[in-house]
Amino acid sequence: MTAAGRRRVTAAGRRRGTRVVVGALLVLALGGCGGIGQEQVVVSAAASLTEAMEALEVAYEAGSGQDVVLNLAGSQELAAQIVAGSPAAVFAAADPVQMAVVTDAGLGLGDPARFAGNRLVIVVPEGNPEGVTDLGDLTDLVVVLGAPEVPVGAYTAEVLDAAGVVLQPASLEPSTRAVVARVVAGDADAGIAYATDAAALEGVQAVVLPAELQPDIAYEVVLLDRSGEGFLEFLASDRGTAILRRFGFTTP
Q1: Which of 6-20, 95-109, 190-204, 225-239 has the lowest mean pLDDT?
Q2: Which residues pair with 145 in a beta bridge?
Q3: How far apart are CA 19 and CA 135, in angstroms?
Q4: pLDDT attached to residue 39
Q5: What is the mean pLDDT of residues 48-77?
Q6: For residues 145 and 158, is the Cβ–Cβ distance under 8 A?
Q7: What is the pLDDT of residue 38?
Q8: Could you give the CA distance from residue 46 to residue 26 in angstroms, rounded to a whole number?
Q9: Residue 129's pLDDT is what?
Q10: Sequence-distant (≥ 6) Cβ neighbours of residue 21 within 8 angstroms
Q11: Given this model, what pLDDT does residue 65 score?
Q12: Whether the Cβ atoms of residue 246 and residue 55 lie closer than 8 Å to each other
């Protein structure tokens, strides 16, 4: 893998060894290295896919000869970037709503396809010092949630409504990874995030929600440029789905 192949543009941040560059700097970061050539494919993927996408990148590059550049951020931020003209060959979103922002703009080559699923959990500090067992326990705690326009925030609102629980969050975060990071930092007693993010970061643990409350969390992917066809095929392959499952995602 080339040095360029390890470049990563991400708003997920807070991970060792990851360079943080946000929003509009994507075009400059790529342009400063000679632009997007035939052997390079830009994959814009939801922040909650971070570790899985990094593993997919390594596995795909080893056999393809292409140089994958990952752009990792909240799905709503990525959709806005793509519609505004930021380069991307593949878009992997954490919900169909943000995917529709891109496809309704006529930017998809073909229809989006569902490739993964997830679960919501209550995220608490390691050891669960407040003894949280269900959503009702959160009403008297300092809680952080995903913002309403963020996929995890929309899913959380659906779950809270179904459970009949009303929360007054201390903050509304731009991604599921940011929710977990606030709990890790000690800024909150609990948060609601994807199970995969709770498993990815140290210092927290997950309180499982009942199956009847779980929303249908659907990750969708669409091709934006023909240079991404090989990566898209790899994502749907047996090896690609095995990598997703290894990081806790469900697959079709």
Answers
A1: 6-20
A2: 172
A3: 35
A4: 72
A5: 95
A6: no
A7: 44
A8: 15
A9: 97
A10: 9, 10, 29
A11: 86
A12: yes
Cα dihedral 179, 184, 187, 188, rounded to 10, equals 70
Question: How far apart are the C-alpha atoms of 88 and 132, rounded to whole Å?
Answer: 41
Strand order, beta sheet including 40-46? 8-10, 67-73, 40-46, 90-93, 217-223, 113-118
Averaged confidence pLDDT in the chain: 87
**Amino acid present at 250:** T
Q: Which letter, b or e, does each residue of 203-238 get, where b requires 16 or more Cβ atoms within 10 Å of its Cβ?
A: ebbbbebeeeebbebbbbbbbbeebbebbbebbeee
CA dist 148 and 160 (Å) reads 12
What is the per-residue DSSP string for the chain? --TGGG-EEES---STT--B--TTHHHHHHHTTT---TTEEEEEEEGGGHHHHHHHHHHHHHHH--EEEEEEE-HHHHHHHHHTT---SEEEESSHHHHHHHHTTT--SS--EEEEEE-EEEEEETT-TT---SGGGGGGS-EEEE-TTSHHHHHHHHHHHHHT-----SEEESSHHHHHHHHHTTS-SEEEEEHHHHHHSTTEEEEEPPGGG---EEEEEEE-SGGGHHHHHHHHSHHHHHHHHHTT-B--
125-152 pLDDT, tens per residue?
A: 999 999 999 999 999 999 999 999 999 9
- What is the per-residue pLDDT across 102-111, written as a single tens digit (0 to 9) for each? 999 999 999 9
Find, among 174, 187, 188, the residue nearest to 142 by Cα: 188
